[in-house]
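As the next step, I selected for study a record pairing a protein sequence with its backbone structure tokens, which the following lines show:
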Amino acid sequence: AYDYYNFWGFQMFNLYHYRYTDPWRVEFGRQIRESTSAFMENFPYFFGSDGSPVPFGRSLTYRVAAVSPVGYAEAAGLGTLPPGLERRVASGCLKYFWERGMLSENGLVQPGWLGANAVVAEDYTHRGAPYWIAVGFSPLLLPEDHPFWTEKELPMPADASDQVKVVPGAQMVFRINSRRGESRLYPVGSPRHNRISWQTGIKYYQHAYSSALGWAALGENGPDLAAGRSGVSLEGKSWSYRVQPAPIFLGSRHNASYYMADLGQAGYARVVTQTLIGADGEVHCVYHTYPRPLYVRVAGYGIAVKHGEKSTGQQNRETQTLT
């Protein structure tokens, strides 16, 4: 699967060994240079202007580790982005988490995203796991006269202009809304995840993920907390959720994917989603090939609530309002 392990795993270790391990650099140097160049081209699109990485995938409790490739790439002499742009992303990400409850009252980093929140964790996460944030301080490898420190910070995509970035190799499309400072990720395809763990469907298989909104989590061994997944159902009660979607085509304004919905003894249905990307949002058009009518649900976003605040809601028979 494509996720932040490409950031704090593969890129980081490849660049580390390129810099500090001569045999590794000799044998794999060309591949590392090429992959790093391609990776860094897309790197800034994963962040909103407030510094938030798009919350997508697992091990999100590592937080600022998402910017680790910046320091390691520059230390290895393989930085391809303007240093001022790199520092804008790195400093913005650190500021985002630092000011939104990354440290608990006792000064520790707890499993979570902003404040402590166990729903973000996986079954392999423990109290020490969040300290993987340390690799996000990789720019400290650079001397004080390095351009990373001396050049003026430059605007990143979410600061500058509305745009769409298609990343065919990762089967992703990004839409940047600079007026809202938002980066929105559409995982048109999401290859089979090699570890089926808690909340995998929520973290990988939604139609879209936003730097401004978290995903709507499930209750452990219970119902959805926010009806947070997209899927189909024969009777409107038992749902087959979107899993391992495969791309049909990717485009800057129009993309399509499908997945095979398991309906139990009733067999399988091929469920297709065509997504039309607009200036301020998107339209998901869902249809299926099953010979009988199916209930369809499109969901996924959580509710934006500032750290330390609580959401309020009003509901009646006609509408539901959440603030």
